[in-house]
């Protein structure tokens, strides 16, 4: 993972065909598109990946949450592991071609993920967000501490908006992950472009093929 990355994470609230339609429009601005659909079966996830590919989303930008087996079967970029998932070391042993991320909520979890061999972590929630009512934000200070203690990239999630992207990067994040802020925006393309511009300070090249 290189540069400042924009990860877009599905919300689980949109039909897969609608999700694929939006992804096909925004993918030039997006480095990783996470299929995070906890209620879907492996077969449904595989069908969803097929929809994303048909919509023009490159395979090397698709990440499947939790289901490394599905990601490997589909030949896509990687898998995002949660607290309940297998260790990154085990997943890498069985599927060495995958780029593995781990979702973490503390410094301890981030250090453990790095030791397991995760390629990056997604840390949150950094700012207050409606998706976590009553749960206090961890804040940019905790993000700064965590990012300073691990060598792998830290992607910030939770309440990240274009207005606070600069502060998030200044705290040490290697990129940001966004869910409804892009996928449920009135104009997802404009929303994705706004995040991209904040991350890259107006660079002309869209997205990343890495």
The beta-strand count equals: 8
State the shape: globular
Can you tell me the CATH class?
A: Alpha Beta
Span between termini: 7 Å
Specify the CATH architecture: Alpha-Beta Barrel
- Number of structural domains: 1
Radius of gyration, Cα only, in angstroms? Answer: 16 Å
H-E string: EHEHEHEHEHEHEHEHH
Low-confidence stretches: 202-210
The secondary-structure class comes to: alpha/beta
- Tell me roughly what share of residues is in helical segments: 25-40%
Mean pLDDT: 93
**Helix tally?**
9
Major sheet strand order: 1-2-3-4-5-6-7-8
CATH superfamily: Aldolase class I
- Strand-residue fraction? 15-25%
InterPro entries: Aldolase_TIM, ThiamineP_synth_sf, ThiamineP_synth_TenI
Organism: Paenibacillus cookii
Pathway: Cofactor biosynthesis; thiamine diphosphate biosynthesis
Pfam family, one: TMP-TENI
Would you mind describing this structure in some detail?
The protein contains nine helices and eight strands. With 210 residues, the protein is of the alpha/beta class. It has a single domain (5-200), classed as TIM Barrel, CATH 3.20.20. Strands 1-2-3-4-5-6-7-8 form an eight-stranded parallel barrel, surrounded by six helices. The longest helix has 13 residues, at 42-54. The chain is globular. Residues 202-210 have low confidence and may be disordered.
């Amino acid at each position: 993972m290189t540069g400042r990355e924009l990860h877009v994470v599905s919300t689980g609230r949109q039909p897969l065909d609608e999700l694929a339609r939006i992804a096909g429009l925004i993918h030039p601005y997006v480095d990783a598109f996470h299929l995070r659909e906890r209620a879907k079966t492996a077969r449904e996830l595989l069908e969803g990946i097929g929809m994303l590919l048909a919509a023009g989303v490159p395979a090397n930008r698709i990440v499947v949450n939790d289901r490394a087996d599905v990601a490997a079967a589909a030949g896509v970029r990687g898998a995002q592991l949660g607290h309940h998932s297998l260790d990154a070391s085990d997943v890498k042993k069985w599927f060495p071609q995958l780029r593995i991320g781990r979702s973490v909520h503390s410094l301890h979890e981030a250090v453990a993920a790095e030791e397991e061999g995760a390629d990056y972590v997604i840390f949150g929630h950094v700012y207050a967000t409606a998706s976590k009512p009553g749960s206090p934000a961890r804040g940019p200070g905790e993000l700064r501490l965590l990012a300073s203690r691990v060598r792998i990239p830290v992607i910030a999630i939770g309440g990240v908006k274009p207005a606070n992207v600069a502060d998030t990067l200044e705290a040490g994040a290697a990129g940001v992950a966004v869910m409804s802020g892009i996928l449920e925006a009135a104009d997802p393309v404009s929303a994705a472009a706004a995040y991209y511009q904040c991350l890259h300070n107006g660079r002309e090249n869209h997205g990343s093929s890495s």
